[in-house]
Amino acid sequence: MAICGRRAEPLSRVKTEIDALGGRCLATPCDVRELAQVETFVSEVLDAFGRVDVVVNNAGGQFVAPAEDISPKGFRAVHRLGVDGAWNVTHTVATRAMIPQRSGVVLFVGVSPRRGMPTFAHAASARAALENLASGLALEWSRFGIRTVCVSVGTVATEGLAQYDPDDVADWVRTIPMQRLGTPREVAEVMAFLASDAAGYVTGTVVTVDGGADAWGVGGYPAELEPT
Questions:
Q1: What pLDDT digit, counting tens, does each position of 165-201 carry?
Q2: What is the 3-state secondary structure (H, E, C) of the chain?
Q3: Third-level CATH fold of 52-216
């Protein structure tokens, strides 16, 4: 297994956990927004393992803001990490490993609800791009034996979620039919299935893991109309 990220401490922690389970983990600092760093990372992976069978594009970041308050710089920052970063990794791995070996699975991480969310116009639009990227690549790369799927993830109890206002999180939970947060393990197990031969006929689609949130929508009530 190979993992990368901008911060060394989380990488070291995950590597230690994987090594303790008897696995072999290559952990390399890499900013996926920077193509040169991605190319170096992929070279290290190929030197260490000789091939790449599965890619999980899970880099992302956003902030809560009304759409009218999102600056061009802020909007671009979210898209550069979530969309450009995913493309840098996917294209580099595909051209250098998966297309030559005629096999591979690429997973993208989308977001649920899939119909847009108030105060997250930047993030929702970036994740929607990944859904279309997964379907578009399936049309082109199935001939190489490469499957591409977007996993649309709902509200999950992660370190990142802890950065948000607890009252906001509680409101989000109330819009989930299952009335609870998801767990990282629940998402990981779906991804493990999609990466396996058991999902060998699944490509070009979106698999939603969200406790029913997408079926419900954003819930609540729309904003009051501003006076003219």
A1: 888 889 889 989 999 999 999 999 999 999 999 999 9
A2: CEEEECCHHHHHHHHHHHHHCCCCCEEEECCCCCHHHHHHHHHHHHHHHCCCCEEEECCCCCCCCCHHHCCHHHHHHHHHHHHHHHHHHHHHHHHHHHHHHCCEEEEEEEECCCCCCCCCHHHHHHHHHHHHHHHHHHHHHHHHCEEEEEEEECCECCCCHHHCCHHHHHHHHHCCCCCCCECHHHHHHHHHHHHCHHHCCCCCEEEEECCCHHHHCCCCCCCCCCCC
A3: Rossmann fold (3.40.50)
